[in-house]
Amino acid sequence: MRIIKYLFLLFLLSLVALTIYIATQKGNFTVKSSKVINSPKATVFGYVNDYKNWQKFSSWIASDKDVKLSYSPTTIGNGSTLTWEGSNDIGNIQTLYTKGNDSIVQKMEFNGTSSDVFLSFKDTVGGTKVTWKSVGKMDFMMKINSFLTGGTQSTLAKVYDKSLANLDKTLDFENNTFSVKINGIVKKLETFYLRQSFTSKISDITRNANVVFPKIITFCKQNNLPLNGRPFIIYHTYDTINDLTKVSFCIPIKEQIFTSEGSEILAGKLVAFEALKTSLTGNYTYKKEALEKTTEYTTSKHILIDSTFSHLEIFTIGKNESLNPSKWLTDIYFPIKPKVIPAPYRKVVKDSTVAAPAPSTKKSVEESEF
Fold this sequence. Notes:
With 370 residues, the protein is of the alpha+beta class. Helix content is 28%, strand content 34%. A hairpin with a 3-residue loop joins strand 4 (90-99) and strand 5 (103-110). The N and C termini lie far apart (97 Å).
């Protein structure tokens, strides 16, 4: 009996000693994981920068069937947040700062432990090198878990490694699956819209769209203006050599309005026009392939593109409708020159002339701002 008491006492002393040892260990940790993702840098950055995509690649979320996710109203860029509650893990993450296509800085709370998270994106051979780094301080329970599992660095590194592998696999399919269809000549109907226009780098269009479209939609809600279709972009000029475009980001509305002078959001009217329609199914990054195929088609069919503006893009199915880039649909309209109708034939009769009919007078149509 006395031996059992001694053994129990020894066990208690050992447990206390172990507890003191664990508690006095340094709680600071740094975890770093890197992987080359087989996709362009802008594509990888844009996908990771949207929290709606995290359930696809974050291993601690994707592996939990019972996880419940909640998002901030805006899921992209500075101030956006993601909160999760699963069978084993709870936490939240907030984006503090982003540098376009290059880096993301976040603050994460994971099972009661706070950490600073840094994601960097660099062009490299074979795609984009993504480095995922986390710096934080462990609480007592995390120290115990770290002691039992061989260290926080090892545990979180495995989580990040698996997440990056999931990211590569997901993007490889979603962003490399696309198709281009030439629909032929169609009539694009007249529409009123609100717009914000400026000169932009072509490579920055997606990033600018993520900022401008929500701003115009908010303006519509604040002023009780009903929307009348999908967002679209008018490219007034399109200079691929210098990577510059004069562009208008537009939200269609049901009725024409007039905005106050000096407002950055202006009203416009798109006059009906004939256009060659091309549909891109898949990630927007394949727009170049869609433009090239359209150029080949217009050349082979001897279709003349009008110079009124370069082209117009409607985001028929976007990320708000589907989380899968392979299912996105962008309809592109290229204005074409109207066919030239030959002048009426004048027949000359001996001793008399049959005059050609007088030209009909058509009611002038309100001139488009384009």
